[in-house]
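Help! Submission page says 'invalid entity' but I think these are all valid:
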Amino acid sequence: MTQPLLELRGVNKSFGVVHVLHDVDFAVYPGQVTALVGDNGAGKSTLVKIIAGIYGRDTGDYLFDGEQVNVHGPRDVADLGVEVVYQDLALCDNLDIVENMFLGRELRSGIVLDDNAMEEKARETLASLSVRTVKSVRQSVASLSGGQRQTVAIAKAVLWNSKVVLLDEPTAALGVAQTRQVLDLVRRLADRGLGVVLISHNMTDVLEVADRITALYLGRVAADVFKEDVNQTQIVELITTGRSGELGIAENPATATV
Amino acid sequence: MTVGSDIPAKTADSDFANDNRQAATIGDAARDYLNRLRGGDMGSLPAILGLVVLFGVFTTLHDRFLTTYNMANLVIQASSIIVLAMGIVFVLLLGEIDLSAGVAGGASATIIALVMIDYDWPWWAATIAGIAAGAVIGFVIGSLVSFLGIPSFVVTLAFFLALQAVPLKLIGSGGSLRFDDSVLRGLSIKNIPVTAGWIAAGLIVVGFAALSLWRYRSRSARGLVHQPLALVVIQIVVLAAIVLGLTALLSANRAPNPNLFEISGIPRVLPVVIALLLFWTFVLTRTRFGRHLYAVGGNAEAARRAGINVTRIKISAFMICTGMAAISGLLSASYTGKVSPGSGGGNVLLYAVAAAVIGGTSLFGGRGRAMDAVIGGLVIATIPNGLGLLNQAAYINFVVTGGVLLLAASVDAISRRRRSAAGV
């Protein structure tokens, strides 16, 4: 198997007396969609925030391209080429698509904003993702539908030649057709060789688009499997009880010492 | 696909099917504009209509309203409101408010007058000292708002009360400081030579035309979103008509008794206002700092996640606001020829907020331009000017101005509702 783009090994994280993550191993491979599933409180958000550099980790290693890296904040993570698309889309309604895509990293010539170059690059990126639903790149973001906004947020992540994109519940608030658009986009990202992490509650979405599935149960990795090896029932069991037949955690962690 | 026929389609474009590059004709552009109006994106239109109505009413009611003498007066009276409103636009853009800007301007003007009278500072050093004092006040306000998280309404209300002490302490109750430096006082009472005025006006028109056409050419050549050429030309013609018309108006002899002496030329304060307008428009639309101001006003959390230093942006906005307030205080001292303990108090600040909002700056943050302050400031200044000519009692003035502000705020609130409904 190829080397993972991004890998966490033996990560532990506690908030006070609450031990949220127990020896979590997590890997993202290039060209694959890795689905991160788990019930509320399983530690998905904490794991994502550790990857994003928002939280530090108590123990464990953070590897990128097989090399151990020191991550001290969101900036370091962004510099590695890891982008996070948050659930509550981080877009400014009063700015247009181009302005949003370059927010915080505007191109300049001298001290003047280089709007022409930004517009060209934004259009190229959207075109390369085969985004056909946007009327104009100079449209204000307030006028976009939920799916289009999600598309812009994802395109923003892709614009920076990122290698790993984490999508936090990208389809949670979307209708059927819009979910379709976003899932197609997720697939295309992986086809371009990016490592994609999809955090989702929706089993249909996960089974449709994911290559690997990592299930968390009460802060532990219950299973890290290929999609072909599991069915929907097994995933649901992994999420709700931590084990399913041969898969899962041997000992019931609910009764284990915390 | 509405790509102009002269643009070679790029390879990437084939995938980007619905992308509109320009409103193809002037008719499309007009239809786009109407749609935006209907969607609640009114811009400065209500203010311009208001200005037309006010001019119409006052012209019919008083024959001396539309004289060149009164128009020049109006320009001078509006300037201090416009400059203060321009500063206020920056805090309104963030969805904040600065109630203390008026008295901060009064305090700064006191400092300017004092260092000139007591320490014989030259006018420019005094002006720098005054603006610096204003910026320091803004720094403190901005820090309290961003670090302690106190609502700006409360912080600046406290400063509004406290800062009134500064001129009172420095000048003494009932006193006043003369403001008679020939350069600073001259801003309001002297005019620039007629020839120089025409040259400046010509430069502005030519500069605007060159910039617009260059922008049109470079954007259409690269296949980017651009306006139709006809619209660009119309914009240039309208600007030329306004600038040259105003220059012609102010270059005529406007003395009430033209045979005895001559008053002509653009009041010196006007170039100051125009320079500030151009500078801040450039900062807001063409620099990274300006873009970040809009972003923080639109969605502070998104801005923070994009790596923007929200605290720095907030503090700078308050510093710009009070710095501009200092200039406004200077202009108003220049107009009256003195600084008194009450300078900048009373309704000065509320007039400026009204000017910004009437001009089209949103009270809810994220929307506004430096130009809004100019248009709104003219509306606000026209009311006391016209009512003064009509010899109306002072109370009428307050009622009318309050009514206009309420109207503007209603337009803002309604258009905001329509915007979120129509999603423009």
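Support: the input was valid. A stray whitespace character was the problem, and the output above is from the cleaned input. Chain B touches chain A at residues 12-13, 15-21, 218-219, 222, 224-225, 286-288, 291-292, 294-295, 297-299, 301-303, 305-308, 366-367, 419-420, 422-424 (CB under 8 Å).
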